[in-house]
Write a structure and sequence with these properties.
This protein is mainly β and 614 residues long. It has 5 helices and 42 strands. The longest helix has 27 residues, at 585-611.
Length: 614
């Protein structure tokens, strides 16, 4: 939760606060053709579908296009997802109210086209000459149906830029094609349009290489193929003829109804302000909250100026759409970075840094135990543009080691410049090195420390980290009980400790009030607190009950009290037979020499007997 809030605040506030804002009076909006905004929608002026063509020899689709002047548009035809079988021929009837040129792109072989006298149709760059004449005294839908004995779909559009059409017939469609205004053609069509009303203001005093683009959409899309109410926004900066402009910072402001959500794809450095919730394409599963935005041109422009963006483009009256694409033509020769003389502000934080920080923070690849900090960060992920080549903590000597999938690190909590913010938290910093750019990205983090009592087992008297979970039989082991508390006056005492094996052997008491239980347990002197913990330590020698096989595991359990409250700590351990003592090299040499000497003497004795026997 904190990481998500941190990201939202960071994305909304990563632009520096203005020190000398651009006055709105100095920014006069004028019509602009420099930039292009395309939007996609399945909403038509009117339309209908029917199954009346299924008894005929072909699908019949009618496109009626209204245009204001001579215009060219594209038509992409595809049968992807087509369910009507068997595959049949397809006829497109295209009608324009003024002269128009249709560029058809398709790999389908069974397409035919008919058009009125205003239409020039080029299919894969080949001109189609078949013409039909329609009169105005009868609806075109009825004329097509009468002529071809059926109609599959009718769609009326105004000034389309690109039409994407998916072929197919649906037996569940109505018998008759009854034209409906505001028809949703999402079943078979999506059209792309240019936003005609684009205004731009460029203040001569504004900083170079900083642009705000404000998109104001009228209402949420009614139907989309991915999620109701979601709009995909893409920002493309292009320069086909020269080198792309570098270091361009973009402030993207998205305003619409509150129920609109946004999925943003923007590669440039910049910030994003939205009214509704939004996602970044780099992190499709990470939702970020929007904020309240002004609902008029003056307020939105003033917000851009407040963030110190004086160069503003305003795209208004955008209809309901599922996709928005801003295409900015920016070449390096057109703008040369200059050092501002009146306004001094730090550069905006790299959006890629923000995304990496957000990804790492939300996945929380760190874990803290009583005395250990562990890190496990994936070496690569689909959400990041670059792989990670190295990771260290604040102390660069504490370096994570790579395995096949992750960078992993496990260190003592008191090392690597880890700081204890309180008795409840430890904090450090991840420093990630990116593979391609060798850039270092820093991610501050903190993790919660356990507050309940902890039980740990060691094999040496100095209680050297790390601890173990193996208890060797008939050999001295060392037990430590630790406890954190926000109350410095807490006087914690060990009440009793016991060991319970996995078999039916009864629980064996190790410590009881006032004294140790048996000679096998020794209470060790009190030790100074470390890492904000009270420590109690003792040693034990565990010996299984006589005549019974060694059980595979056991559980150490200790009860602690401060007089008013009681707490319990436990640790599961694996029991291990103590290996037999191996002989030293001196013993081996001695035994070998003795065997040699005995053999020699025996041989001599037998020879003596043999020579003295007649």
């Amino acid at each position: 939760m904190e990481a998500g809030l941190f990201l939202a605040v960071l994305l909304l506030a990563c632009t520096p606060l203005h020190t000398s804002p651009t006055s709105a009076d100095e920014c006069k909006f004028l019509p602009s053709t420099q930039d292009k905004l395309l939007y996609k929608t399945s909403q038509a002026l009117s339309g209908c579908v029917s199954r009346s063509s299924m008894e005929g020899q072909q699908e019949v689709h009618v496109l009626q296009v209204k245009i204001k002047e001579m215009q060219r548009f594209h038509l992409n035809v595809s049968s992807a997802g087509r369910t009507s079988l068997p595959k049949r021929a397809v006829l497109f009837v295209i009608v324009c109210n003024e002269s128009c040129e249709v560029l058809v792109h398709s790999e389908e072989s069974d397409l035919t086209f008919a058009s009125d006298i205003h239409v020039s149709t080029l299919v894969n760059n080949v001109l189609v000459t078949e013409k039909v004449n329609y009169t105005s005294d009868k609806p075109i839908v009825q004329q097509v149906k009468d002529h071809y004995k059926g109609i599959t779909s009718f769609t009326e559009l105004e000034n389309p830029y690109h039409i994407y059409f998916r072929l197919g017939e649906d037996a569940s469609s109505p018998e008759d094609c009854i034209v409906q205004p505001g028809f949703s053609a999402s079943q078979y069509l999506q059209a792309e349009f240019l936003v005609p009303k684009v205004k731009h203001c460029k203040n001569p005093h504004a900083q170079k290489l900083k642009e705000a683009h404000i998109l104001h959409m009228k209402q949420a899309p009614k139907e989309t193929s991915f999620q109701p109410g979601m709009v995909k926004v893409k920002v493309n900066v292009v320069c086909p003829e020269a080198k792309l402009l570098q270091d361009l910072e973009i402030l993207l402001i998205l305003q619409s109804q509150e129920n609109v959500t946004w999925r943003v794809d923007m590669k440039n450095n910049g910030a994003i302000l939205t009214r509704g919730k939004y996602w970044l394409s780099t992190f499709p599963d990470m939702q970020m909250n929007g904020r309240a935005l002004p609902d008029n041109e003056e307020g939105l422009t003033g917000l851009a100026h407040e963030k110190d963006f004086g160069d503003v483009a305003f795209y208004r009256d955008i209809p309901s759409a599922s996709h928005l694409t801003i295409e900015l033509h920016r070449c390096g020769a057109e703008a040369t970075p200059t050092t501002p003389t009146l306004i001094h502000t730090p550069p905006m934080q790299d959006l890629q840094d923000i995304l990496i920080q957000a990804y790492v923070s939300l996945n929380t690849p760190w874990k803290c135990t009583d005395d250990t900090m562990e890190i496990a960060v994936p070496r690569s992920t689909e959400y990041l543009k670059e792989d990670i080549t190295a990771i260290t903590l604040r102390d660069t000597g504490c370096k994570a080691e790579p395995n096949k999938t992750h960078f992993v690190l496990k260190r003592y909590l008191g090392d690597c410049n880890t700081t204890l913010e309180s008795e409840a938290k430890a904090s450090n910093k991840l420093i990630l090195t990116l593979a391609a750019s060798m850039k270092k990205v820093e991610v501050e983090f903190s993790c919660e420390l356990p507050q309940e009592p902890q039980l740990q087992l060691y094999q040496t008297q100095d209680f050297k980290w790390p601890s173990t979970t193996v208890l060797q039989v008939n050999k001295t082991a060392y037990v430590q009980i630790s406890f954190r508390s926000s109350n410095a006056q807490t006087n914690l005492m060990v009440k009793e400790c016991s060991v319970q094996v996995a078999t039916q052997e009864p629980q064996r008491l190790l410590l009881s009030p006032g004294a140790s239980h048996g000679k096998a347990v020794t209470i060790l002197p009190p030790k100074e607190a470390t890492l904000g913990r009270e420590l109690h330590q003792f040693s034990l020698v565990y010996t299984p009950a006589g005549g019974r096989p060694l059980p595979p595991c056991a559980t150490l359990v200790c009860t602690l009290t401060n007089g008013s409250t009681t707490a319990e700590a436990s640790l599961k351990v694996t029991l291990q037979d103590t290996p037999a003592q191996s002989l030293g090299i001196e013993a081996v040499v001695g035994i070998t020499f003795a065997a040699f000497l005995i053999g020699t003497l025996l041989t001599a004795a037998l020879w003596c007997i043999y020579t003295h026997t007649p």
